[in-house]
Request: fold
Amino acid sequence: MPAGGPQLTEPTGRAPGARGTRSPDERAALGRAARAHAPRSGHAVWEPPDGREDPIAILERQATTRVPELVAIRHQRMATSPFTFFRGAVAVMAADLATTPVSGLRVQACGDAHLSNFGGFASPERDLVFSLNDFDETLPGPWEWDLKRLAASLAIAGRARGFDDAERREVVEGAARQYRETVRDFAGRGVLATWYAHLDAAALVRRFDEQAEPADAVAFRRSVDKALTKDSARALARLTEVVGGDRRIVDHSPLVVPAEKLMPERSPAELHEVVGRTMRAYRRSLTPDRRHLLDRYRYVDLARMVVGVGSVGTRTMIALLLGRDDEDPLVLQFKQAEASALAPYAGACAYTNQGRRVVEGQRLLQATPDIMLGWLEIETFDGTVADFYVRQLWDWKLAADVDRMSPAAMRVYGEACAWTLARSHARTGDAIAIAAYLGTSDRADVAMARFAECYADQTERDHAAFCAAVASGRVTAAPPPD
Reply:
């Protein structure tokens, strides 16, 4: 269990950010007092504890609830590099973080705040906004766990890019410093000012122009331009074709598999009824104005789709809907939501439906959440009853090319991620107490950078063990067939 024990337990029904009647001075004193049981320098330490569970066993346990024919694809992606292994091994790191010191100051944690889980997306006002973009593991928990996962991801990605020790240290310490200073900034703001704050793509472009190399700035601008084309219209062009006069999702098995192929025993009428129940269940989770919006579209087709690294093997579907005409698409993603990897260590979910857990967490953490967010419980293609959340598949999705970043570019990007994380934690936790705990010195920054390097070592050892398990046949890993 996590260090700091009793302070991890949140009063029933009380949000992580609930502050009671304490004054700002009292909240700051609470933060400074937390240093007594969790010194800032103590965050630098990572040693695998005695009895640490075999990480391969954790991943094998996860595989038991996933689509069997897709698990080998997930394992193949994880075996590619220590960074891809890290992305898929959130449950491994959650168990490890549970043994590290915590201040006892809780937030709505992302749960999987690694470098590639930040990016850009369209706001309802049609601006490109930068924020967290993955909430599968979100749950109330220690702020330290999110920051340590971000820090470790920067160190691991830096190693993959060949950065030397000094370059990696500058990147990670820069991110930790940005988090600390941003929390302090929000501690001095009003509640609404904190809630409205966001980082848009234009501001991030300016950061790259001012602080990164010219080539990095050009590359990032290209990423922004590409993001503006990644929407439902592009999904329509890439994922569908016209067959017999009707628009259909193209079969790219096993990565994209149409519903009729997964359920050959169902007649078209039976399949239509299954989809109808699914859409009605999703519709009930929407607010009245969003229901009205959804009702303007008609359902056309459904397919299973493989996405990401850590999510591979969970049941994920895409639904094609059309509005005004065949060139007015809405592509929705229905993604299975299982219990958060943090749950065994941070506490149980407050919601009975795990999809709702994801949606409510996203609404708390993300700057401007997708207007189509919803949740439901349904029977899937293989007869499994599961919780799902729903969002648009693509809506101006910006993803930075981590594999091509220079040290300067990764420093700028890492600081943007840290700013975003701090803003999310300030919205849902006590920024005054966290800022007081972190203080004004670089003690916590240095500690986070040291932890990141130690955990990068651990990840490389775990990745090597995983690859050995693949080689021995204990773990099956295979790319998708052509």
DSSP finds 19 helices and 13 strands in the chain. The CA atoms of residues 191 and 427 lie 8 Å apart.
